[in-house]
Amino acid sequence: MPKDTIVLRFTEVSFEYDHIRRLLNEVSFSVRAGSRITLMGQNGAGKSTLFKLITGELKPTEGRVSRTPVDATFAISRQVMSLEALDLSLREYFATAFPEKVYELDKLIAEVFDIVHLDLPPDRKVKECSGGQQARLLLAHALIQKPDILLLDEPTNNLDQYGIDHLTTFLMMYEKTCLVISHDADFLNAFSDGVLYLDAATKKIEQYTGNYDVVVEEIRKRRERENYLNTRMQTQIKEKRAQAEVFAHKGGKMRGVAKRMREAAKEAEENIVSVRTEDKTIRPFTLPAQEFDASFPGAVVEFTKIFALHRGRVVEQELNLTLRKDAHALVTGPNGIGKSTLLEKLTAGLSEGAQIASEVEVGYYKQDFSNLDFDRTAFDTLREVMKVQDEQVLRSTAAGFLFDGKLLASPVRTLSEGQKGLLSFCRLVLLKPGLLLLDEPTNHINFRHLPIIAQALDEYKGAMIMVSHIPSFVEQIRIDEIIDLEKIRT
């Protein structure tokens, strides 16, 4: 397909959920064949919804979405594995990528596994794969279809650095059209040549040329200009209103002058530019640690042995490690080695080689948020962890994580993945845990929030065990112990 061909076009597209929540308002843009486009916007602004409009899973409220040619194919790599897919074998899972039965499916699976660097038997269950392996499966499921338009929704979530580097190299060589949602700046800068910016304030999409950093800087400068113009406009409004009051008290013909002054002030108010809400960040916060009485022995969690999975075989090794208050540990190792399993077993009290003190309150940030009840409201999800019920404290804390009354009243399942992440951090603040277990806490989170979260974790005074594949994030947090599962051998 020629590079100057418009392969995807939105024409005056509007979209709203249940005639209440509008996400897009008369959006128009086009994408050329072979482009590698980043889709930017605040958590919950509607980026994943835009992908669903492209695939046809959702229909526009108004306007038109068109592809050229009309039969151009597309495939989407979603953020999380669906519940329906978890019980499928890998062979059954990849069969769902095709409308009809495909012969030599195992051969196609082997080819796409080579691209995403996976080595798994096709009869393994999806649910038996680690979070990182599932992330690669989601990507492979899209790639095996060889689409004209490839849609990637947070493809680096749960990937180790090798996986991210492998994906980056593949996309740099990819000759077809690709649209990516991601908050990983280094990943995006490596291959993207354009940006679609979804403005949550205007519900419009702005189109930019350049990589991620170039566009972020351009948006920053634009915001500064908008703020400067707004300041000038506000000054003019105050002056005109003050003048209107003076003329109104003089009576006679001066009342007509006063009326015109008020009209000018009203017109100036209408011209004030809406500063984009995407640039809001969460407030700096403190993660309170559980307070123990004088009888507490001091050991929050004790390890006597540690387990890892190497080439499908569980190996173990003795480990003499005690984490006390204010001790931070990092668990490292490649995808599929057992990092998430370690945290899950710790939380459930099923880890053979580790023991958490009985009086310790455990706060668990799970990478797929499956420890949240998706049918409960965000408000109830927060309230249930508070030992002292105080609605004012709850709402004030939630506001710091960008949750207003409307979002608090929403079921968790209606939140974006990024909003679920912020909700999880808000829960931890209200819970006041003595032990913090964090499994990929940067997943889905807007890059503007990460330095604030890192600072809170760095200053946390309880015991902490963290899994993260983002070196730039980990570097901002004090780490006292490293548990490297890659080094565990028998």
Please provide a written account of the structure:
This protein is α/β, with parallel strands linked by helices and 490 residues long. It is built from 15 helices and 17 strands. β15 (435-439), α14 and β16 (463-467) form a beta-alpha-beta unit. The strands form 4 sheets. The protein has a 6-stranded mixed sheet with strand order 5-6-7-3-8-9, sandwiched between helices. It has a 5-stranded parallel sheet with strand order 14-15-16-12-17, sandwiched between helices.
Quick take:
This protein has 490 residues and is α/β, with parallel strands linked by helices. The protein has helices at residues 47-55, 90-95, 105-116, 131-143, 161-173, 185-189, 212-248, 254-270, 339-348, 378-383, 391-400, 405-408, 417-431, 450-458, 471-474, and strands at 6-17, 21-32, 36-40, 62-67, 74-77, 149-153, 177-181, 194-199, 204-209, 299-310, 313-324, 328-332, 354-356, 362-365, 435-439, 463-467, 481-484. The strands form four sheets. Strands 5-6-7-3-8-9 form a six-stranded mixed sheet, sandwiched between helices. Strands 14-15-16-12-17 form a five-stranded parallel sheet, sandwiched between helices.
